[in-house]
Amino acid sequence: MKMSTKHHIIPIFVPHIGCPNDCIFCNQKKIATDKTNVDTKGIANTINNYICTIPETNEKLEIAFFGGSFTGIDMDIQRELLETAYYYKRNGYVDRIRLSTRPDYIDDKRLHLLKQYGVDIIELGVQSMDQEVLLNSFRGHSDLDVINASRLIKDYGFVLGLQMMLGLPTSNYVKELFTAKQLISLKPSIVRIYPTLVIKDTFLEKKYFRGEYIPLTLNEAIIICVDLLMLFNYYNINVIRIGLQPTDNIAENKDVVAGPFHPAFRQLVEEKIYKEILTSFFKNIGNISNNIQVKINKKEISNFIGQNSSNLKYLNDSFGIDKVKVLGGDISKSSFYIENKDMNYEINIREYTEKYLLNKKLITIDD
Fold first, then answer.
1. What is the predicted pLDDT for the residue at 270?
2. For a 10 Å CB count at each end of the chain, is N or C smaller?
3. Distance separating alpha carbons of residues 193 and 265, to the nearest angstrom
4. Number of separate domains in the chain
5. Mean pLDDT of all residues in 98-126
6. Coil, strand, or helix at residue 19?
7. Is residue 301 part of a domain?
8. Helix, strand or coil for residue 42?
C-alpha cells in the first residue's frame, strides 16, 4: 500500500484492557470489563461526527484505534470494534483502518481476524531492541517477538509500523542506534519516535524521585533524534511522529513530571537538521556574501528558519550572513536552493544526509 502523507484521522479510544503488562513508563489504568462494555453505538456516533465535519477533499480518511494493545483484547470484543469500523470502510466512507499493539500479541489467528475486517496498518510498540532495556522497562517481550511479529504482519500483507522510545532505563546513544538499525532491517513503512517522559502515577516517576532514573534533557533528546531521523530518512522510511502528542494532560505542570517534552519537538529536530546541512555547505564554499536568498518548499520554511529564527541567527553569528530572504514555493522537499552573490546552488538533502551519516560512521559506503 502506498502511504499518503495527506489524511484525516478518526481516533477511537478503546479501554486499556488489551494489555495486562505494567510498563515502567505507562500510567494507563487497567479497566476490568467484558464484551458488554463495548459501546459500538458510541463509536459509530464518533465516526459519523468526524465524517460530517471533515471537508470533502482528495485526502485519505482513516479510523485509528488508540488506547491499548488492540490484539490483546478478547477476540469477541475485537470483532465488535472491527465490525463497526469495517462498515464505514466497506461502504466507502473511510479509506483505511489502523491499530497498534504489542509484538507478543501477534499470531495467525489474530491476523486472520484483522484481515477479515479490513485492517490496513498495524503498528507495533517495540520501544527497544536491546534486551537489557526491555527487561528494565518491564516490557514483557523480547527482541525476537518483534522480529517474528514484524515478519508475520508483512506476510499477511499489512502495512507495518514500528514505534521506538529513547531514554529508557539503562539505554544510551549506542542502544538507540542499535534499535533504529534493527527496525530498519525489518523494513517498516512507518516509524514513530518517542523520547521517554516521566509521567505521573508510573513506576518511572517513583524511580525518578528516588534518584534512580535521570531523563534525557531536551537538547540530548534532540541530538539523538537528529541522527535517528536522518538514518530513517536515508533508508526511505517515513517517520510519522517524533515526540508525544501534546494534550490537556500531556503537558508540563500537568501529567509530565520530567523529561524532554516540547509541544513542537519535531520542529526542533527538523531545524537542527537544516542547521547541520547549512554548516556543511557554508564551510565548504569560499567568498560568502552577507546577503543570500533561499528557495525552499513552502511547508519547510518554519523548519528552515527555526524557532525564534534560530537558524538565521546562527548564519549571522557563524558566517556573517545578516540578510537571508527565504522564498517558499511548490518545489520538492528533496532539495532547496541558495543564491550567494552570482552563484546558485542546489542543496540535495539526501546527499548531505549521506555525508552526515558517513562522517558519524552511522552508515558505510556500501549501505
1. 98
2. N
3. 11
4. 2
5. 96
6. coil
7. yes
8. helix
Convert 161-176 to b/e letters by CB count within 10 Å (16 or more is b).
bbbbbbbbbebeeebb
Mean pLDDT along residues 52-65 = 85
Section 284-289 average pLDDT: 85
Q: What is the pLDDT of residue 19?
A: 65
Q: Give the domain range for residue 291.
A: 271-359
What CATH number is given to the structural domain containing 71? Answer: 3.20.20.70
Element (H, E) at 239: strand 238-242
Domain annotation covers residue 367: no
Sheet arrangement for strand 343-348: 323-329, 291-297, 335-340, 343-348
Domain limit, last residue, from 212, 241, 263:
263
Judge if 258 and 276 occupy the same domain.
no
Q: What is the DSSP string of 130-195?
A: -HHHHHHTT----HHHHHHHHHHHHHTTPEEEEEEEES-TT--HHHHHHHHHHHHHT--SEEEEEE
On whether both 225 and 290 belong to a single domain, the answer is no
307 and 255 together in one domain: no
User: Same structural domain for residues 140 and 27?
Assistant: yes
Stretch 63-74: mean pLDDT: 88
| 296, part of any domain | yes
- The reply to whether 281 and 316 lie within a common domain is yes
| Structure confidence by residue, pLDDT tens digits, 10-26 | 999 876 665 666 787 77
Asked whether residue 240 is domain-assigned, the answer is yes
Q: Give the pLDDT mean for 303-313.
A: 97
pLDDT, residue 36, reads: 40
Instruction: Answer yes or no: do 122 and 248 share one domain.
Output: yes
Burial 119-133 (b: 16+ CB within 10 A, else e): bbbbbbbbbbbbeeb
- pLDDT band with cut points at 50, 70 and 90 for residue 181: very high
Residues in contact with 187: Cβ distance below 8 Å, sequence separation at least 6, in sequence order: 154, 160, 237
End-to-end CA gap in the chain: 25
136-145, 186-195, 228-237: lowest mean pLDDT where? Answer: 136-145
What is the reported pTM? 0.91
CA angle 357, 103, 261 (to 5 degrees): 55
Choose one of 224, 245, 263: the last residue of a domain. Answer: 263
Answer yes or no: are the C-beta atoms of 119 and 79 closer than 8 Å.
no
Could you tell me if 220 and 286 lie in one domain? Answer: no
With b meaning 16 or more CB within 10 Å and e meaning fewer, what string describes 302-326? Answer: ebbbbeeeebbebbeeebebeebeb
Please give the average per-residue pLDDT across 300-328, as a whole number.
97
